[in-house]
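Page 47, continued from p. 46.
Same chain as before, 110 aa.
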Amino acid sequence: MPNYMLVYKGEATDMGDMTPDQQQEVMAKWGAWMGRVGGALVDIGTPLGAGVSVVDDGSAGTATPLSGYSIVQAASLDEAESLVDGHPYLSDGSGDYAVDIYEMLPTPEM
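Result:
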């Protein structure tokens, strides 16, 4: 069964900028999502910090604001998409956050 990378787009609030109660609320939402996804969650991933963009023509680029990633296993892209229903990263409702989903293809043999 293929793996899919969930890429969290948008500048998430730093946990250090939250009160302990807010941190606990966020972590509870993540725990609920992870419990619902269950064994399909292959790698919870990690938050991402500041980034840079290196452009092939030597010009300066701007890195896309990304907050992190996770990896899930699913039978299809549609099934992987269904796993983000109720995802805590999409709970703001402001339109500032998105989860992009990519199938992870096998590395070509050299």
